Queue: 3 jobs
Job 1
Amino acid sequence: MLSAFLLLTFALFFSQEKEPMFWQDIQNFKKLDQETAPPKDAILLVGSSSFTKWTDVASYFPDKKIINRGFGGSRLTDLNYYANDLLNPYQPKQIIVYCGENDFADNHQLKAEVVVDRFKTFYKKIRQKFPKIEVDYISIKYSPSRETLWPQMKEANKQIAAFMKKEKNSEFIDITKVMQDSNGNVRKDLFVEDMLHMTPEGYQLWTSVMNRYMK
């Protein structure tokens, strides 16, 4: 009798364990989709906080249908973990990914190849569901607060660019140059106080590059 009671106690204890990271963000997306059916043939943005904080992204692309499913702090491992939740509810004509920066921030020793493999895994998951749509990757940006990680990030960008070049209906959208001054240094005025997230002007510059890739 006692052992049955203990088992029940353990079961209750473990059922109250914390939900996996970002679980609540995914529930919020589900709630949004229930409240308003997501449009078909839209451009689906998936990734981390550079998308999350782009709350008025639709106003930058007034002639496009945009679904923004960025969740702050996410890494490519999280995109892989929640791939079904991020892809299954939608019927987009294009998917644009911005993610990878937090993978390096999470582990400063991480090799570029590891992040590239994580992206390739996510890319394959997209292709299993959407074999023919346009899939684009925005280059990892140079964030002044993560300056020490730039060499790895730059290498990851290079490898992902090479991978995307070989894939059909895929583009690597490089936003590095547009964020630099005439001396080739990143413009710090494009960032808010944390030197990680961007100002509206930063997003305006992204838009100027992204426009030609948008379906």
Job 2
Amino acid sequence: MLGDSIFVEKLVQHCEVDHPTQASLAACCKEILQRFKFDCVFVAYSTSPEVPPTALGYEGKEEIMDTCLYRLGAEERVALSHVPIKFFSDMTGKPVFNKSGSLRIQKPNSGIFLAYFRAKHDFILLGCAHQDSRAYEQELLTDLTNIWKSWQETLRETVHKILKTGKIEAPQTTTMAVESPEPETKIHEKTELLFSDEAFTRPVAKGPAPAIIPKAIEKTVEPKRPVLLVDEVTRLFNRDYFEECIAIEVERAKRYSRNVSLLFLSVTFLNQGSTPQNENFIATQVAEILSKSLRRVDIICRLDKNKYGIILPDTANNTYGIIAKRVFRFYKQIMGENPPVFLNISASTYPKHAGNHLLLFENAEKLLLQAQEVGPNKAVLPE
């Protein structure tokens, strides 16, 4: 269409300056935002879909861009590398702490995403999003697709010119407020023992293990929020962050009728006389295993020296086997043929197995004890 051709020419003009900068990309984003009435438009880049992209230019609300980059995990980005366009009518944000120590969560929004992918070279992402949840008409998707096809090569050249200068600034983000969760009381007890990469096993017919719920989770009032929210060794989030986030993610799942899953992983040393230095090295390897096995949207926390908790937003129980296989596969790759530790995994899902975050934690804790009793590198996962 003539209108699309004229619009693409505007985008090309912003790109084909002598020395393009991030401001050049921001100008392109502004053109798209104004024409199609989005709340945020951004361009992001990485070398492949598996690598989280960095925003190079944007126009509009930064918190929406942050939510979009958070929501698009590796699986969604890989899917984008095979299809011309992808959209989400309801995307929700992650819990984050702001500078004052308050926990916030981005409001739900919607977005349309297009990607340019050249294997082993480029993954360029164009994101167009709204602050609220909404459906998108086919006419809008078609218009954006046509514009993207005509503009993406010029955009790729511009991105590479900007990257060569080395002057890349990461945009700052802001956050939105969230309400406190209301507990429920519901639990399903039916479980099934799943497998590591090698073998299937069946559940052990035993009575229920005693519930182990951390004292910090039982507290309803906390006078002061902790200052440190990451583990010093692994740089993963710590227990304090985990205890705040699990309640918020369950509340978010409840509000929008979604699933949220909790996965526990324990690390057991074969040599009980290991040194603190060796323990720290193993902890960094485990952090690498989890980072490679999980999506960017997943919240990975080190709960204590040998235990990790992973919050899986928008994840149902039918994906547990895939996640466990992936963890054990990277465990072998990173730790070698004779690893000094073995792993055990358990999981639970809201609302299928638990009606609130306390019961979700209790379920996963019970199943982790069962997995440890079964043997090395086994996972007990509910069906």
Job 3
Amino acid sequence: MKTILLADMDAFFASVEQRCNPALRGKPIGVTGPAHRSVITTASYEARRFGVKTGMSIREAKALCPQLILVTGDNDKYTHICTALKEVYLSFTPVVEVYSIDEAFLDITGSSHLFGGPIETGRRLKAEIQRRFGISATIGIGPNRLLAKLASDISKPDGLRLIEASEAGPLLKDLPPEKLWGIGAKTAEKLKRLGIRTCGELASAPAGLLRSCFGVMGERLRALGMGVDSTPLHADQEEEGGPGGTKSIGHSTTLPHDLFRRSEMAHWILRLSEKVGSRARRHGLTGRTVTLIMRYRSFETFERRRGLGAATNDTHTIFRTAMDILSSTRLKEPVRLLGVTLCGIEQADTQLALFGGEDRRAGLLRVMDMLNMKYGPSTLTWAACKGESPHRGIISPAWRPSGAHRSL
């Protein structure tokens, strides 16, 4: 039986800011993006006691906690620590999946005995993270990813919990399904309409009923209710090799003000397309589908996608496709957020192009990527991107040291 450990940093962005600035320690802080319309990205536990939550507007957060200290997030600090954390994980096991910027799954099946067993491994990992970075982590351990995640969720903050396979049944019996990783609010509501309000009821529900309501996902839901999860870890060294773990490469940005005219959105979409294309090229990847994500002023979010004739990582191909999607979309209110994602990821074809123009285009992109890698993002960029000065949003939670994203 496997032994999976989840290391989940506690209020990661806020904890890093408190570590870097001692004056913030013990105080309610909210990390935000630099734009005036930003939302709370992470709140310290001191702020959470007042009800401040991730995704809350600054106005709402201040109403709940007038003494809240707002701190503009620093992506460089967060990504640096995430990358360094991976080095710590690898000192405990070679099988590590950095799931997001503040979470990592470790398969310690074959290595925990070297550190005194699963619990002692978790204890030593927590101590090393605290010693090196001055931040706390909650450690969840179980026979699979699902139970390791549950162990972490119910032990936050600064906790350590092991859930044995034999404990799963009694522990899940009265637990609401939405408390399980992988079951969202909409699915939970649908389950309630079927009279299923606990994981115990989900585990004993007729398979035929679940299949008729949820299709092939019905059987997986029933397994989750039993605490069963066969999803393997995708070790990062495998993902860097290409599409084995990377499903999509995406970037999004909250606009400095709501936009309704497509012409005003164009340079933001080009900027996002360049980020996506650059990251794909850096890792030798291409994609066959472009997805455009839009969020209205009302926070309603939707996406549209379009397939490509051939796999690409060319900035302008991604941009033109995203703009085609925008042109064919009827907007019903102003847009506050835009995102561009390249999906259907595969290894890039290194065969020489048949036409000289394609070679020149590829050469130009290589030079741009090289200069931007050496001197910083947007050192060399497209003239159309210069219309409005960029603002650095908070990094996507899906960021990984390998550069691969789970999704937007």
